[in-house]
Amino acid sequence: MTTDATRPRQRYSGDGWSLEAHDSGETSVYTLRGEFDFAASTKLADLLVAAPGAARVVVDMTEVEYCDSSCLQVLLRLARGLHAAGGRFAVVSAVPAVTRPIGLLRLGDVLPVHPTHEAVADAWGAA
User: Fold this and answer.
1) Is residue 62 in some structural domain?
2) Is residue 1 part of a domain?
3) Which of 16, 35, 89, 116 is the most buried (most CB within 10 A)?
4) CATH code (residue 30)
5) Has residue 6 been placed in a domain?
6) Which residues constitute the domain of residue 62?
7) Residue 89 lies in a domain
8) Which residue has the higher pLDDT, 3 or 17?
9) Is residue 12 classed exposed, middle or buried when 0-12, 13-18 and 19+ CB atoms within 10 A define those classes?
10) H or E element: which one contains 84?
11) For residue 92, what pLDDT is reported?
12) Sheet-wide strand order for 10-14
């Protein structure tokens, strides 16, 4: 049985990618799947900018196969906006296609990466 809280609020897809949006209390969770390149970045930006203003955002990228710098830039804008408003942002992934560029570019302070949703909750004090 699926409760309304866990049911996807929105689903979007493009050529080779998809995004599902969920609300979990004060946190919005965006699950990305597939390949995110320059062609997907504009649509991704539109979807994330149009998202309701949650105080906390988690972007689940555990099923992302490719993520280029244009998509990282979209996530950076979202994260910086949240931080400026006193909110929180986290990425969930252990996929090298996601974690490696974030690490190499030293973006971990703005785009903190955690291997699981539980690790995000622990980092945020489970609040």
Assistant:
1) yes
2) no
3) 89
4) 3.30.750.24
5) no
6) 11-123
7) yes
8) 17
9) middle
10) helix 69-84
11) 98
12) 10-14, 17-24, 27-36, 56-67, 88-92, 113-114
